Structure formats: C-alpha cells, structure tokens
Predict the 3D structure of the following.
Amino acid sequence: MYPPNASPVLALYDVTKVHGHGDAAVRALDGVSLALPAGGFTAVMGPSGSGKSTLLHCAAGLDRPTSGSVVVDGHALESLDETALTRLRRERMGFVFQSFNLVPTLTVAQNVTLPLEFAGRRSSPAVVRTLLERLGLANRADRMPAELSGGQQQRVAIARAMLARPAVLFADEPTGALDTQAAREVLDLLREAVRESGQTVVMVTHDPVAASYADSVIFFADGRIDGSLPRPDAATVAARMARLASAVPAAQAGGVR
Ligand SMILES: Nc1ncnc2c1ncn2[C@@H]1O[C@H](COP(=O)(O)OP(=O)(O)OP(=O)(O)O)[C@@H](O)[C@H]1O
Ligand SMILES: [Mg+2]
C-alpha cells in the first residue's frame, strides 16, 4: 500500500501521561511508542479507562504528555510553544469527537469552514461544495445543525476536520452516538478518505465492527500497547477484546484506579 520505509506521519516515543498529583495521580499512558505510516486507517481499542482518549489527545496536541516525544508530520510537539502548536493543530490535524461539537448557531457550511477562518485562511466555495457533496450533504449546506440527524451532524464534523487536508485525522468514538446504519455511513466515509485521498485516520472505538473498517487495530490495556492486528475482522477483534477485558482487574475496569 505504501513503501515500508516511508517515514511515519505520526510517531510516539516512550510517551507517558500522568493525570493529577500525589495520591490522586493516574498513569494513563505508561511508555507508549508507535509509528503510523501515511495513508493508513488505524483503530485503537481497549477496556474503558485504558488510556485511549489520553493517547489521542496527546497525539493530537490537545494535551501535553508528562514525558516522551510526539512527532506529527515531522514536527516534535514538545518543541512547540502554544501558538505554534495551535497553528500546527489547525493546519495539519483534524479531530472528530463522539458528540459532534458543531456550533449550533452556524449553518453546516459555516461550521465546516470555521477552523480555516480561525487560521486566517480563505476556503474556496467550490472546494467546500465538493467536500459536502462527497459526504452526502450537498443539499444541507444552509441548514442548522439541529435540523440534521446525528449521522448527518457527524458527517459535517468530518467535513470540518477534512477541509484543511490534515496530515492526520483523529476520531474518538466517532460512531459512539450513532445507530448502526448512520455508523456504517460514517465508517464508509472514513475508509473512503483513506483509500481515495490518502488520508491518515486514527480512530478510537469500542465497537469491533467499527474496528474492522480499519487497516489495523492497536490494542491498549492499562496505558500500554498490548499488541496489534492487521486486516482485522470483527469476530477476531471481539475475541481479543473479551480476553483483554477479563485480564483487567475489576477495580480498573470502570476506569477507577
Ligand atoms: N483529566 C483527567 N484527570 C484525572 N484523571 C484522568 C483525566 N483524564 C483521564 N483520566 C484517567 O486516566 C485513565 C485513562 O483515561 P482515558 O479517558 O484515556 O481512558 P479511555 O481508554 O479513553 O476510556 P473510555 O473507553 O472509557 O473512554 C482513566 O483512569 C481516567 O480516569
Ligand atoms: Mg475515551
């Protein structure tokens, strides 16, 4: 699919993240190293509280690791000040959340172009129109988010994340609030963005079927990588998750440490 020696678009080197202090400290990431080549679709799975969201937030520069290095598109995030990090995030990273996070008082088209405008860049109406068409939203451009279904709102959030052609698109449980059909449409779109535009996607999910849309799955347990599975199928992923869940002490299964 891509040359094996291609330099990674996202790399983590021995990343740790400790939330809180003293007795309340939680080691959410415990020495995570990984390298993802450009143009791949990677799913991240693991029990609740295993550190998946923390991983995504540190990789996307939304949160700072306690130690270690994160390199996105050739930039070591720890070497950037807040202004430079914000700029890199706007220009080279997209983020899709479970809860869509659209601005309710803006139209679909305005929501999609908002990050570019924050970055002081103009968006071409033709590019926005083509993107909305691709995501099945051509006739929704002037609607307000509240007039759309959950699946349509998530597709708007994906359009917003993709408009700047980010080096990496991060998605934290993007189908978590959707029914089966809407989830399938969102997953098809993400996979299509990878196949047709060479987009790199990293997606956290709890759903083995969602994970099966990815090129590979990284399993996470207790803040560490616990293996990976290329060309995943839902049944193998589900079996692996069941083993991981049974290996987690009950006190940790709900994220309590
Ligand atoms: N801001 C925070 N302050 C303190 N502890 C936190 C914070 N964020 C996360 N944690 C803790 O860090 C650990 C990892 O949390 P994280 O949200 O990354 O897990 P997750 O794998 O995404 O879980 P879920 O599947 O439930 O979303 C958990 O024990 C959690 O309670
Ligand atoms: Mg999470």
